[in-house]
Amino acid sequence: MKTFSIMNAAAEPFRLVGRRPLATIVWGLVLLAPGLLVFGAMMPLLGEMFAGGLDPTAFGPDADPETILFGDDMASMMQFQIWSNLGQLLGCVSLLLVTTAIIRGVFAGRKSERAFFLRIGMTELQVAVVGLAVTVGFCLVAMIAILLAGGIGFAVWQLGDPWRWLLTIAMGVGVVLGLMLLWGRLSLLAPASVHYRAFAFEEGWKLGRGKTWSLLGLWLILFVIAIMVGIAFMILFFIVMLVVGGGAQATGPEAVEAWVEGVLKQPALLAGIALVLLIPVAWLQGFSQALFTAPYAHVVQALAGRDEPAKVAEEFH
Fold this sequence. Notes:
Layout: H1 6-19, H2 21-52, H3 65-70, H4 74-108, H5 122-156, H6 163-186, H7 189-196, H8 201-207, H9 212-245, H10 253-264, H11 267-291, H12 294-304, H13 309-314
């Protein structure tokens, strides 16, 4: 029976971005593009809003952010909602394109890339349908599991201590563990759809048979890696802020606020900083998506092998 190495799968994102650094940046830019486009389109609206000032009476514990920003200006509020919805839609499309491109990149190995593996075709449709079905199905299963656990928990709560606490904690852990195991199996469906070039619900599910606990271990390792990468970039960002802000005296909140206000008064400087940060931020965005996509593509490649070489190879020629 075919198997896979958890550590090799966890290392796949690093191999992928090492082989294709430019593609990683492009993938990040594609993911960032919807937000940047929507923000740019909304700049005039935001400028008018801040020029008019915020309504101080709108603030409160139950305040609506849109009410704080726009007050009674329904036209601006509707325009803001339209752009926000458009941004979310474009974000879903960009996520689909990049996810499929990353899977192709893993399957291609060291083969030459074409347009950074970004395509719009039948494969994207298959991944979109599978991804939507997985998301909806997982949410339904999670909701049912939580409701059942809540009902059982209410029933066992009538027991005395410490049994009710032990049973409640055990059920909570069981629900979370079960959902994590399920998600590990479901994570193979999208890469399997790219591999088989089909709606690979059955094929992807079968590939994970007998590998459920290994897939859970892989997910936990990826989670730890994500935390470590996040901490590293936070430290790096803090160091950069110290250097740009003038050293240790910039660590106070007043100094940081003064620095931000000074930058905002210089649009050219702000644009320059944004351009300088765009590349590393795009790389980080592309790597973050590869971190939780490439390992499962590696698993599918290891478990499925090359049983459909004609179909797989056709993607890269």
